[in-house]
Specification:
This protein is mostly helical. The chain has a domain of 186 residues. The protein contains twelve helices and two strands, in the order ααααααααββαααα. It is elongated and about 125 Å long.
């Protein structure tokens, strides 16, 4: 048997490019379709290369250019909007995770702002401050009964005041517009500030002082914002933190400095100016009384 050359060997596996149509007898006997074309070697190689490339791209999870859909400008804008919305939601979620920390930080900033406002009023010669506290009452809270002072000013006072001046008005205006809500909030804040601006006259009757309680007004607005945005608990927390910090500093002053010096600093801390009409001599004599528990 003669040896087959390379071309004859290749033709055994790959038919020639010229299709050969079998006779009817052959079709019947060998079950071959009469119009089935044969492949050329070039077509066969193209098929092998295409199959290999398709398999490689599939393994690498790469889509061909024909499978990719063009991205329209509207689609890009929608993606950008969704991305911004997602970022804002993430920020709100992060803030919701630490609402108390956020409130305390904001309260610290408000305390700084109130201090600046009081200093400005002082330089301009505008009468201001908390007239509802007297020197005698201040000494009692800070020196004689510090625990009671902390409980009353740091817990009981904020709970009651936020319920009266914030929670009650807020519960009545849920169906109002945002502007109307702030109108009610400012009105209730004015009442809150006036409640801290009462002083007795010469006959002992309580009257409103002729001064601007700027610190109480600024604090009241902040507590109204907290009430509307985060709820009653957050407003009480901020109010309690404000009073507790001031009371704690005053208590430390009376433990660290002479009574007269501590009283002078505490008056500035609480924004009072001998509101009860006590003279310095009388205040000093009251400070010399034995300390009570």
């Amino acid at each position: 048997m003669a040896a087959l050359n390379r071309r004859e060997l290749f033709n055994l596996f790959v038919p020639s490019s010229t299709p050969e149509v079998a006779s009817p007898e052959t079709v019947v006997s060998e079950n071959i379709m009469p119009d089935a074309p044969t492949w050329s070697r070039r077509s066969f190689l193209k098929f092998i290369l295409a199959a290999g490339a398709a398999t490689t791209l599939s393994d690498l999870n790469i889509e061909t250019a024909d499978a990719q859909e063009p991205v329209s400008d509207e689609g890009a804008e929608e993606d950008a909007t969704e991305s911004v919305t997602s970022i804002k939601l993430d920020e709100k979620t992060e803030e919701a995770k630490n609402p108390y920390t956020q409130t305390l930080l904001e309260q610290g900033l408000v305390m700084v702002a109130k201090s600046i406002a009081e200093s400005t009023f002082e330089k301009l010669g505008i009468e201001h401050g908390n007239k509802s506290l007297t020197d005698e009452r201040l000494v009692e809270m800070l020196r004689d009964k510090p625990i009671e002072g902390l409980l009353e000013g740091g817990i009981l006072g904020p709970v009651l005041e936020e319920a009266i001046f914030r929670a009650l008005p807020s519960s009545l205006i849920n169906n109002m517009s945002r502007r109307s809500r702030w109108g009610i909030g400012i009105s209730s804040t004015v009442l809150f500030a006036l409640a801290h601006n009462r002083e007795p006259d010469e006959s002992g009757n309580i009257q409103f002082a002729k001064s601007i309680p700027i610190s109480q007004f600024m604090g009241g607005l902040f507590y109204w914002y907290l009430m509307r945005e985060r709820g009653y608990t957050q407003a009480v927390l901020a109010h309690s933190a404000n009073n507790t910090v001031a009371l704690s500093i005053g208590i430390l002053l009376f433990k660290s400095y002479p009574d007269e010096k501590a009283l002078q600093v505490s008056e500035k801390l609480f924004g009072i100016k001998d509101a009860g009409g006590l003279s310095k001599a009388k205040a000093t004599s009251s400070l010399e009384t034995p300390m009570t528990s």
